[in-house]
Amino acid sequence: MALEFDAIIIGTGFGATVAATELALERGRKRILMLERGVWWFTPERPLPEYITSRPGDKREPLQYWPRPDHRQGILDLLAVVRSNNSVVEALRNMGDRPQPLYRYHSFPQIDILTASGVGGGSLVYSNVSLAPYESPETHTFPVMEGWPLALTPEDYREAEKWMNLNRGAPTQVVTKFPMPRKNYPDLDAALEDNPSLYLGRSRWLKEAAGTLGADWQAKMLEDWAPLSLQVIDYDGERPGDPNKFTYCERQGRCFLGCLPGARHTLNKTLVNPKRNLLNGPNAPVELRTLADVERIEPLPGGGYKVLYDNLRGGDDHPDRKKQATAPVVIVAAGVLGTAEILLRSRERLRCSDQLGRKFSSNGDSAGFVTNSFALPYGIFPTRGPINTCHVVYKDKDRDGKQIFINVEDSGIPPMLASPVKRALEVFSGAADRDPFFRQMKALWKLIIPEEGLGLGLQPDARKPHRSDTEHEMLQNTFFFNLMGSDRARGKFELKNGKLSLDFEGGPLSQDPVFKKIDELMAAMAQAMAGAYTRFPFWGRRGFLGNEWSEERKVITVHPLGGCPMGNTSSDGAVDKLGRLFNTARGADTVHPGLYVADASVIPGPLAVNPTLTIVGFAKKIAAEIPSAMAAGGGG
């Protein structure tokens, strides 16, 4: 039986795009199919790429635009492109023609997970950070990877950085209120030391707060304050050849909503980059099919695989709804939840390890606010700048002596969310001493109904400076933490009644020691800056909560990891060190030839940092092995 493609890649995120670019470099005519369940997303402020504009008629790619406007009225725009896994909620919202989602909000009993949906995967809604885990200066290894079947090396991260620079663009550091090109400021550190007011308020806040913590936390600091490497375009002082082709970071504070100036290096740009030539032209090595929702993978009798998917371009009764494609090599890179669900649905026909679905990690994601920091001589303004700009790294231990790594970053709040965030902080920060029932009722009431006046409950009066704050002023004295830490990776995905479920072995996720340590660190940060600490999220597993610490609090992650973990054999992993899916329940190391997993789901534990660079590092190592499997017709 002749197979249609040399390889099929499921997904368009970081793992998928790494695989596509690496395979496209191989000599000879390649037929690579990429399947993406979402659509293209762009900004209306920049020209569309030729790949989109040159496609005629029914071949025209469906596309949508980032949520707008950039103030509280834009929340309706934002909510319209969020789709949840709650069938009741979605049935109530499914009235009329709705746009395709940009975000998928997965709510499970102990954790909520926010992921992206669209061409470019997670790059569409992430914070642009390229960061390796903490590296031991003595051993030049990464302690969070201790005991992993495959631990990346510093050289692997350098290779990942090369891929990012080549396929996306050189990273930059954005911690100032406006670009300060090295051409004009060769000693930028000295310039900032002499004039710290040049920093973005929240970048400066974290730098100063880290230096004023008590001796206990100072002793636990592994890496002092430092700017983050961001995949954004910042003005470098050079005059561009064609100003219409260049755009720069404008500090609009809305990276994960979509950059309106188009200054982020998202992967949809990589796929249509004319220099890479992955999709453009009659001899392009990659064919991309959007609105293709993969259902399952089946092995073919003579070798190779059949991928069955739904064509979402028509309705449920569309005659061309059910589609399939065949290839000797299939690379699953649909993101942690997508990959887990596809493989769990496929296990009736694919023998898999019983480790499939296990070792899910929230990456210790946590967050919190420090409010009323009026003692500062400057505004924090979390609505300005990229989402994350800088970080500090700490190490602690749990009761059993196990190391806990915590990465603390500043975080932005998009202006369109400033009003509801301010209202929520007003409600929950003062809720601890009220009766629980009345606390919840008042919280709901105040979130929905303004007490008086317009919008924020403030009567317009030109004699009062805060009569109706701008979106930037509403939170000018509020700091938003974004933290990651090393949890114990105890999550397990299963299919129950055809739907993905997620439970945690060994007790509730919120009881993981990392969250208590993170809570202690955030409280210390708030005390150092004489502000009030408000925990996030505001809700828990049993409804709304106040600001007190409780193991009923829910966890939210935007950095899910695991679910299809690497292992030495099928007894401790779902895939081997080359990313190949094991084909036995446990004990052996035999694999399905030509069937790979190459995304964050293979990572068998937390990273305690933003995972993008690590995903690229693992995907590059996996992709390096795939050409031999393609040449062997899947039998590599």
Q: State the CATH class of the largest domain.
A: Alpha Beta
CATH fold call of the largest domain: FAD/NAD(P)-binding domain
Helix content: 10-25%
Q: Please name the fourth-level CATH homologous superfamily of the largest domain.
A: FAD/NAD(P)-binding domain
Strand content: 15-25%
Number of helices: 16
> Distance between termini?
19 Å
Number of strands: 25
Structural class of the helix and strand makeup? Answer: alpha/beta
* Number of domains as seen in the coordinates: 2
The profile of the biggest β sheet is: 6 strands, mixed
- The coarse silhouette is globular
Strand order of the largest sheet: 9-2-1-13-25-24
User: What CATH architecture label of the largest domain applies?
Assistant: 3-Layer(bba) Sandwich
Mean pLDDT value: 89
Q: What is the C-alpha radius of gyration, as a whole number of Å? A: 24 Å
Flag low-confidence runs: 431-442, 447-458
